Amino acid sequence: MNLDATMLNNYQDTNTVTESRYAELGAVDLAKNSTEKADWVKPSVIEEISQISSLRNLEIPAIVDQEVIVTSTPGFDIPANLTSSTKISPMVYDIFSGFRHFPAHYANNLIDEQFDLDHKFKKVSYGMGKALEAIILSRLEARKTQVLPLGSAQVSDGTKTFAFNTTTDTLEISKEAQKELMFSNISRIVGANEIGGDYEILTSRAGLAASRNEWAKYGNNNEKNLQALGYPSPDQLHETGLLAPGSDNFTGYYVRNGAIAMYENFPADFRMGTKLGGKEWSMSDTEIPFARMRANVFVNREATDATALVATGRDTNLIMTHFQEMALWIRVYIFEEFNSDLSTRANPIIKIKGLAS
Fold first, then answer.
1. Residue 353 in contact with residue 170, Cβ under 8 Å?
2. Containing domain of residue 104, as a range?
3. Per-residue confidence at 226, pLDDT binned at 50, 70, 90?
4. Across the chain, which distance is largest between two alpha carbons, in Å?
5. Alpha carbon separation from 94 to 79, 208, 220, 239 (Å, rounded)
6. Between the N and C ends of the chain, which has fewer C-beta atoms within 10 Å?
7. How far is it, in rounded angstroms, from Cα 304 to Cα 261?
8. Number of domains in the chain
């Protein structure tokens, strides 16, 4: 005789854990900050973008910069100096995802229903944020300046060099130049090319480690004048896992606030809040995490036989049950500061590379 039949089974905890990881989406953060400074996009345009149909485009009139004719001979032969104009339009992108949820599936499971529901929403939001991150990076690459003729030689000093590579359209920064004077020198370079202003930096992961370490050594009670050295505030430094530095210390972009902007669009039923037969359309009240944009939200509820969810046996909880599904749709219009000729005019989006030597 023994007590084998009544021994305790494995203890099964219902406090669920997950191995999911979430990292900074620096391109999204940079674009959101830039949007706030895009004062050339008027409120009336933003309002129209929020509800415009995909069958219509939005066009903004733009005046092309040109050299005026100036002479030293007064008279009736007056230079015409006529205005030249064009139109610019934003790019539009759709980011779509969602998830399905079977409440009865948790009636015989250790996983907590609310935990899993929150986890699914967070994972989907992060995936959508990464999709937006990739879109923003593609636009920064497409709009990077192709010319940066002035300033690099003037700020370079011995092994601390700055050089614009006209083959890759990239400002290359030597290893020694990546320390305390890097931010100040880049600022002087863009100023020399008449595209100065308030800039933010996006790099590959740990790209600004050397600069951050130099910065961390000095505080308010130190002899270093951080403001004079051009150090940006921490919220102006961003990192992304979608840029790979390769054999370099970092790769990234130096972007003037206002050079890129993004705004949501909400199709009719989502604006109207339509409800029909267990289906609901709405606009999210707040920005969804990671993507940092308001989304079009569609919720559906349907009766179903969900027994196929269980691999072994037939769970009676799932024979006549229901599912809930949520679709999240971010429709985003991306505006870019007007530049009539990237091949000849410096643009306030500079691709940068921190060399390993």
1. yes
2. 92-357
3. low
4. 123
5. 48, 32, 46, 24
6. N
7. 43
8. 1
